[in-house]
Amino acid sequence: MTIDRRLLLAFAMAFGCGSGLFAQTDVPAGVPVTLLEMPLRYQDWPQRRSAHAVLELDPVRAVLSVFSEEGGQNVIVRHPGGDGGNAWALEFREWLVALGVPSHFITLEPGSGGADRLLILVEATPTAFDSSA
What we know:
This protein has one domain (about 25-125): CATH 3.30.1330.60. It has helices at about 5-15, 50-55, 60-65, 80-100; strands at about 35-40, 75-80, 105-110, 115-125. By secondary structure, the chain is an alpha+beta fold. Helices cover about 30% and strands about 20% of the residues.
């Protein structure tokens, strides 16, 4: 019997057994914290795109549920190199904008780690905690 690695990681983070995001309490000010990191495989990208079809994608729903303009957050879309990868990232950004994420919060970067996927991240830059207030 095999256990899905993502399920095991989620279990470990939920019960404090891992050093995941929820355990990062001592991050220096100005260092981005990754709130979300999800791949989007090209095989999952709908052939006929509509708002309904794009909203069915787990990475899109995850970005929309995690992202906040007030949280010092940025959505990073890492894409495969070349014209095809760049075009896919541009279209993905357009869909995020159409679904409510302002374009100036979205950064496109080459280097998704695979020719057939986008890597979607939501990062937040924490501010320094002022204990004198």
